[in-house]
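[Q] Does anyone have a clean structure-token version of this?
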Amino acid sequence: MSLHDRTFGVYGDKVVLVGWPVDGGAPRRTLADARLSCADLGVTHRYGDDPDVYLVVGEAAGVLTEHVAAVRHDLARGGVDVTLSFDDLSLVTYDDPALPRASTTWRPL
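[A] Here you go.
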């Protein structure tokens, strides 16, 4: 899928917002490279060579394609820049992808 089509979607029952590290408006592999370097330490990212920054914003059932298209259209009208650094990254381990606190741990990289 194109970057535009991946900005927002429903995957299974998860509603997901996706972004990418950019420099000068062009997507960069900064996050993918950081994840791959963690593999050298025995820590692998669930999706491997993945440059995306993504956020599960909720769960939904029966979301209409028109709604997804409308959100993508709104996102395409103007991006949102969020400054992140390596200090903002954490290693997260979990058993349940809903990330309940009782079975989820995280620590800074």
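[Q] Thanks! Anything notable?
[A] The first helix runs from residue 3 to 6.
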